[in-house]
Specification:
Spore Coat Polysaccharide Biosynthesis Protein SpsA, Chain A; Nucleotide-diphossugar_trans; 28 strands; GDP-mannose pyrophosphorylase; Mannose-1P_guanyltransferase
Length: 360
């Protein structure tokens, strides 16, 4: 298998303010745009041709990745004029594929961090003779996900949307967001209108008697849809808990990129990333956080499981715990921000003006 479709058109609304200026797949995780990790893992699995289905801030992708040759890939870009949903996006890029009708095409979402064995999923697809194969993973609480029960052979028997009662929870297997389609199946998706592959395509194929195969792979899996999840995913990449050949440095407690200036007595732990040109002042303590390019952390600041946007400034002795600070924002000295608070891009928070916060 040499082809894949990468769905990168979402607006990343739940990730704001991180996605105000940057599409979700391009937000840095472990020092590089998150999309870099996905492309590198696909290339390592033998994929050479990838078509990106873009929409929101589509102009950002090609200037960064170009034709993909630097990564050993052939990249193409197709931009939706109007949002088409997951299924519509897949159908919209079909004309760029080179596969024959019976060939497998890998499809994956631009916001899932996973240790999926891509070659095993393709192998399962081939040996089972399926029309579509799905990566499934198991979760402790499946109520926020669509359930995908299978029979003893792994064949999908139903698609159940977000069950709420114990009686409705018939399996802990969920759709993990990576698929292998036979090329001919992609052509059956209606063209020119929004289509949800999860709510329309898959249930429709099942109703028509198509063979949908599930492969359970419960290695690392994380949906990076929220700021808290994104920060965790970045830290897990640095710590080595999540696999990627694209982490730009040795895995460990910290990753400090070139031209960053970190005071000798600053303490960086928990998979913290310090971006290019960022500054960390004396006595600062940063745990499990991401400090993006050009941000400044002043002396004595305490930061835990937070994301500091590009060019932002955190004042001396300020405490951040589970906070998200937008690009170019300034948080003055002696503030205390906790519990998921988000400071918008370019905002200015005076010194000592906030001592605590609740979820917002």
């Amino acid at each position: 298998m040499t082809e894949a479709i990468l769905l990168v058109g979402g607006k990343g609304t739940r990730l704001r303010p991180l996605t105000v200026h940057t599409p979700k797949p391009m937000v840095p995780a472990a020092g590089v745009p998150f999309l870099t990790h996905q492309l590198a893992r696909a290339r390592a699995a033998g994929v050479t041709h990838i078509v990106m289905a873009t929409s929101y801030l589509a102009e950002v992708f090609e200037p960064y990745f170009g034709d993909g040759s630097a990564m050993g890939l052939h990249l193409e870009y197709v931009t939706e004029k109007e949002p088409l949903g997951t299924g519509g996006a897949i159908r919209n890029v079909a004309g760029r594929l080179h596969s024959a009708p019976g060939d497998p095409v890998l499809i994956f979402n631009g916001d899932i961090l996973t240790g999926l064995d891509i070659q095993a999923l393709v192998g399962t697809h081939r040996t089972s003779g399926a029309d579509v194969s799905l990566h499934l993973t198991r979760v402790e609480d499946p109520r926020a996900f669509g359930l995908v029960p299978t029979d003893d052979t792994g064949r999908v028997t139903a698609f159940l949307e977000k069950p709420q009662t114990p009686e409705e929870i018939v399996t802990d297997q969920i759709n993990a967001g990576a698929y292998v389609f036979n090329r001919s199946v992609i052509d059956t998706i209606p063209a020119g209108r929004p289509v949800s592959v999860e709510r329309e395509t898959f249930p429709g194929l099942l109703a028509d008697g198509a063979h949908l195969q599930g492969m359970v792979d419960s290695t690392y899996w994380l949906d990076l849809g929220t700021p808290q999840a994104f920060v965790r995913g970045s830290a897990d990449l640095v710590l080595g808990r999540a696999p990627s050949p694209a982490v730009p440095g040795r895995r460990g407690e910290r990753l400090v990129l070139e031209n960053a200036d970190v005071a000798p007595d600053a303490k960086l732990t928990g998979g913290t990333v310090i971006g290019t040109g960022a500054v960390v002042g004396a006595g600062a303590r940063i745990d499990g956080s991401a400090v993006l390019e050009g941000a400044v952390i002043e002396p004595g600041a305490r930061i835990r499981e937070s994301l500091i946007g590009a060019g932002a400034r955190i004042g001396a002795r300020t405490v951040l715990d589970g906070a998200v600070i937008g690009d170019g924002a300034e948080v003055g000295a002696d503030n205390e921000l906790r519990d998921g608070i988000r400071i918008w891009c370019g905002a200015r928070l005076p010194a000592g003006s906030v001592r605590f916060s609740s979820d917002q």
